[in-house]
Amino acid sequence: MEFSLFGQQFSLFPIYLSLKVAGLSTLASLVLGTLVARMLARRRSVCAAVMDSLCTLPMVLPPTVLGYYLILLLGQRGVFGPVLTELGFQFMFSWQGAVVAATVVVFPLIYKSAKTALEQVDANVEKAARTLGASEISIFFSISLPLAARGILSGAMLAFARGMGEFGATLMLAGNIPGKTQTLALAIYDAFQAGNDALAACLVILTSCICAAILVTADYLLGGSR
Amino acid sequence: MIELSVQATLKGRQGAFSLDISFRSSASRLVLFGPSGSGKTLTLQMIAGLIHPQKGRILLDDTVFFDSSRGIDMPTRKRKVGYVFQDYALFPHMTVRQNLAFALHQQEKHAPLMGAFRAVAPAPLTPEQQESVRRMLELLEITHLADRRPSQISGGQKQRVALARALLISPRVLLLDEPFAALDPLLRIRMRKEVSRILNECGVPLVMITHDPEDVDAFADDLAVYANGKILAMEEDFRGRTLFAQDSLSYLTDILNRGGHADRPHGFDDV
Fold first, then answer.
1. What's the complex ipTM?
2. pLDDT tens-digit map of B26-43
3. Residues of B in contact with A134 (CB under 8 A)
4. Structural domain span for residue B159
């Protein structure tokens, strides 16, 4: 699929792939991050503190380091490599790998905001539900989650924006194959390296517009029920 | 009949607070009276199973709620106690009617998988359930508030909703935590009468905690006087007597001497 902007011809694939990777990784992190946040919220043990640090670590580590770890875990000769190959999963140099890399990178953003949001839910309200006979699963879905939803969703919004810009870990795990694993960020780098400044500028403007539009839309949707 | 004998030490931000109490009451209205920070709320939360004592026994009628020697600790949701929190703890994202519906939904019995599904997506109320919500709204005189959210009603109205919600589970006992402390004086007098009327109509036994002597006069069949995590005195058949009478004044002096606020350990805002 070709597209033309300011007289530049370029493929729309990187845009489509970036949206797909950012969307899927945000969804995956939304589920995982919220569940882990629920498990660790209001825990004050040493074990919980260690888990909390581990879950926050991807935010601090350079993405290349994360990519390296992911190769160690998921690569053909990695720890889970043989098992994954057996099951038919291929994360090296595939768009699925890009999703995994982005998921790890954006996970802390959702985990952190979900944990804060869940801890801000009035503990007495949850206790009241318990005295009324509610099970923990019922309390989570009917009370805690709706009351923490705004905080969790604003985390998801940040995660999506971060996923759109993900570069390092994706490059390490999924590579930079045009038409297969080349996302927007990688395409811009490629164009710039190749001296194609006009194409790079086009992609930069396009990326900026898409990200700004997403943020404005999300802000509008989140603010809607205020 | 409620029988309770518990020991617990709780560590706060600064220092520890120890609770060592035991009482037994078969009155239909038991009042736990004492200064703030004397362990009344702790006791109430232990009856509800929200806090676990290190040692002891809690019995309600024939049901063992907690027994450390036999390793029994019934989970809160199975105890069926109607707890009205001091701040009412209404669900802020639900209307009054939805708050009451939530209580009713938790009483439904489902198969395990169905239960998990219903926890996420509750079914609409059955006609019988709707009828009990309607009757409860009427009993508490809050029918006109049914479609409002907790943020849109006054303190006294929130209390009625919290009472209605607690009563809908047909509780074995109603636990009221400082129910009138947050109300203005005139409303307080009115709500005392209202709560008395509602208790008479529902026939639910009451355990109430208060630091207001007037609540004691209005409600206490049995009276337990708290100070510093201990029970200073247990009075049976208190009904008709008053804390303000000459022979009762010694309690108040005693309590003041034995410490309340002054001796309260730091870091305990709500015990």
1. 0.86
2. 989 999 988 888 889 999
3. 77, 102, 106, 119
4. 84-170
